[in-house]
Amino acid sequence: MCGRRSDARFVIANSEGVLRVARDVTILSTDNEMVALSREPATYGDKMTVDMVVDGHVHRIAVRVEESLPIVTGGVIRYQIRLSRLN
User: Fold this and answer.
1) 69, 72, 76, 77: CA torsion to nearest 10
2) Do the beta carbons of residue 39 and residue 23 sit within 8 Å?
3) Are 47 and 28 in contact (CB under 8 A)?
4) Is the Cβ–Cβ distance between 43 and 65 less than 8 Å?
5) Whose CA is closest to 37, among 63, 86, 64, 73?
6) What residues does each domain of the chain span?
7) Which of 21, 22, 57, 62 could form a disulfide linkage to 86, CB 3.0–4.6 angstroms apart?
8) 53 CB-contact burial (10 Å; exposed 0-12 / middle 13-18 / buried 19+)
9) Which is nearest to 84 in space by CA: 54, 57, 45?
10) In angstroms, rounded to a whole number, what is the distance separating the alpha carbons of residues 83 and 35?
11) How far apart are CA 10 and CA 23, in angstroms?
């Protein structure tokens, strides 16, 4: 029977792409590091782009995840994500 779980449902052949997932985070920043508070965890070593709106201008910053730890704030679990800026 076609459409059963054992049948292939999709095929990816020789494809490259970029997945963009927008998250709302709170950022605390220093010269070289940023700490983000997020509802979702991040994976060590992942490279990301942070878009910050400052005085109506969008600043795009390339970062790498250095650490992602669960914390409790206001009785809710959040993730503290330490980011380092990439040149």
Assistant:
1) 20
2) yes
3) no
4) yes
5) 73
6) 26-85
7) 62
8) exposed
9) 45
10) 6
11) 28
